[in-house]
Design goal:
163 residues, alpha+beta, Immunoglobulin-like, three-stranded mixed beta sheet, 2 helices, 7 strands
């Protein structure tokens, strides 16, 4: 029995080597190491809807700031009359100086989006309401939607009594 098992193992080993040597060119390729698209026009977005916690109505002109995981501010703005702030993941537009450096080196200008797949932090504040911080696990190419309900500022210091 021992000899027969060794022969079967040898045959399997020979078949595996044969497959790798002679059939590898016919096997489908999976692509480059990084298969995620870069610089895509529809890179996704982070949509933040801000509402009053009691009335459930949208809060206009709430200040919304987006931070990366090192707490660097990426972008900030105010909500629309519908309580909406959108952070679009559009391709970065390099200034002329940076583009000139790439051309000088004979390299093509990379297509990179403003946001990449990671966790981002969102700081929301509005007059008369307590501030709120939340996070979003963003994935490129997907629209992330965050609904935030702000509580009225009952103390007067931008701090709410709600826990």
């Amino acid at each position: 029995m021992r000899g027969k098992g060794a022969i079967n193992l040898s045959i399997l080993l020979i078949l595996a080597i044969f497959s790798l040597l002679f059939l590898s060119d016919t096997l489908p390729r999976t692509g480059k190491a990084r298969e995620f698209p870069t610089g895509i026009q529809n890179g996704g977005s982070i949509k933040v809807h801000v509402f009053d916690s009691d009335s459930k109505k949208p809060i206009r002109n709430a200040e919304v700031a987006l931070y990366d995981d090192s707490l660097t501010e990426i972008e900030a703005g105010k909500t629309t009359r519908k309580g909406l702030m959108i952070f679009n993941n559009a391709p970065i537009e390099f200034n002329e100086d940076i583009m000139a450096l790439y051309k000088e080196d004979g390299k093509s200008i990379p297509e990179i989006n403003k946001l990449d797949s990671r966790i981002y932090y969102i700081d929301i504040a509005a007059p008369g309401y307590g501030a709120h911080v939340t996070s979003v696990d963003f994935a490129e190419g997907i629209d992330s939607i965050i609904n935030v309900y702000l509580f009225r500022d009952s103390i007067g210091l931008g701090i709410t009594a709600q826990l």
